[in-house]
């Protein structure tokens, strides 16, 4: 089964980045010279995705516009012989087919996925959360697509091991390994933000999913959970009772850019891994560290 569609929810308010997000969507805040959402979409494209479905909200049109063509800017760059910049802008405008659907109320991740039902075909689809950057080769989503194909095209959730004291920040997976390399797990259930004392494992879900179309049936059955929101976790737990659902330990470095600290870490690491900026970044860190009181 070829997975061609990816859902990227971007309707959140981004309150942890106020006051910047008063006017700028959190997803458009740049890491170096590209907005955060660019890296998420690039991961999807590099994984074979052909159509991106943004779940957005009021005043977030700039996200969709970023991936559209800007003919006035292209003409300006061409007339000023800025051909390198012109090629870059044109490439962004043709990365993928972009579709947008409005989530009129922010009622949780489960609800955000449910509003895409009319746009999703019969095949499985990917879900990538817009504030989790995962850097690696092959891309995280591609790893999950291959794991799904190797296990009967069943749903797969990306997981990573976290310190026990951090489990309350994540959905935590319980299940059993299906192979000797301890990479893929047959899920028993997912527990939303358990306490360290009650967590069954330390296998956390940072925001990458391969889902089958029947997820919509389960999303329609669940009731509002924590925070008055429809939790994807509840729908996945229902799914686990009726079919095989897997979790897979992906390889790659994950940055939680949904908070200031994760965003700063990502920015520093991206600079250190950018050939244009690496030497300058190292020297700047040395200089600033010497100036600390």
Walkthrough of the structure:
- This protein is α/β, with parallel strands linked by helices and 293 residues long.
- It folds into 2 domains: 254 residues, Spore Coat Polysaccharide Biosynthesis Protein SpsA, Chain A (Alpha-Beta Complex), CATH 3.90.550; 35 residues, no CATH class.
- 32% of the residues lie in helices and 23% in strands.
- The chain is built from 10 helices and 14 strands.
- A 5-stranded mixed beta barrel has the order 8-11-9-10-13. Strands 2-3 form a two-stranded antiparallel ribbon.
- A hairpin with a 6-residue loop joins β9 and β10.
- α3 packs antiparallel against α4.
- The longest helix has 14 residues.
- The chain is globular, with a radius of gyration of 20 Å.
- 36% of the residues are buried.
Question: What attributes does this structure have?
Answer:
single chain; 293 residues; 14 strands; Spore Coat Polysaccharide Biosynthesis Protein SpsA, Chain A; alpha/beta; two-stranded antiparallel sheet; 2 domains; globular; 5-stranded mixed beta barrel
Produce a short descriptive summary.
The chain has 293 residues and is α/β, with parallel strands linked by helices. The chain has helices at residues 36-46, 61-66, 71-79, 83-93, 109-114, 140-150, 215-219, 232-240, 260-272, 278-291, and strands at residues 5-9, 30-31, 34-35, 51-56, 97-102, 125-128, 132-135, 156-161, 171-177, 184-192, 203-205, 208-211, 246-249, 253-256. The strands form three sheets. A five-stranded mixed barrel has the order 8-11-9-10-13. Strands 2-3 form a two-stranded antiparallel ribbon.
């Amino acid at each position: 089964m070829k997975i061609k569609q990816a859902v990227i929810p971007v309707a959140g308010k981004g309150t942890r980045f106020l006051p910047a997000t008063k006017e700028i969507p959190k997803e458009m805040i740049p890491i170096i010279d590209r907005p955060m959402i660019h890296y998420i979409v690039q991961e999807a494209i590099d994984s074979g995705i052909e159509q991106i479905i943004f779940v957005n909200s009021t005043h977030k049109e700039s996200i969709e516009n970023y991936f559209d063509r800007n003919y006035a800017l292209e003409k300006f760059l061409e007339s000023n012989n800025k051909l390198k910049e012109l090629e870059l802008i044109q490439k962004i405008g043709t990365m993928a087919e972009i579709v947008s659907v409005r989530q009129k109320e922010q009622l949780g991740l489960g609800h955000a996925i449910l509003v895409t039902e009319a746009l999703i075909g019969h095949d499985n689809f990917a879900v990538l959360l817009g504030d989790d950057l995962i850097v690696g080769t092959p891309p995280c989503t591609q790893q999950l697509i291959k794991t799904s194909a190797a296990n009967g095209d069943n749903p797969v959730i990306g997981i990573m091991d976290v310190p026990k004291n951090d489990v309350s920040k994540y959905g935590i997976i319980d299940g059993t390994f299906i192979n000797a390399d301890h990479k893929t797990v047959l899920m028993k259930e997912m527990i939303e933000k358990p306490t360290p004392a009650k967590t069954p494992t330390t296998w956390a879900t940072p925001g990458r999913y391969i889902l089958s179309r029947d997820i919509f049936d389960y999303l329609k059955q669940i009731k509002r959970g924590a925070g008055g929101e429809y939790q994807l976790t509840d729908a996945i737990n229902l799914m686990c009772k009726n079919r095989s659902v897997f979790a897979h330990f992906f390889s790659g470095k994950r940055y939680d850019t949904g908070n200031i600290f994760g965003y700063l870490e990502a920015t520093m690491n991206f600079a250190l891994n950018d050939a244009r900026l690496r030497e300058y970044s190292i020297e700047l860190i040395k200089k600033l560290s010497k100036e600390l009181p």
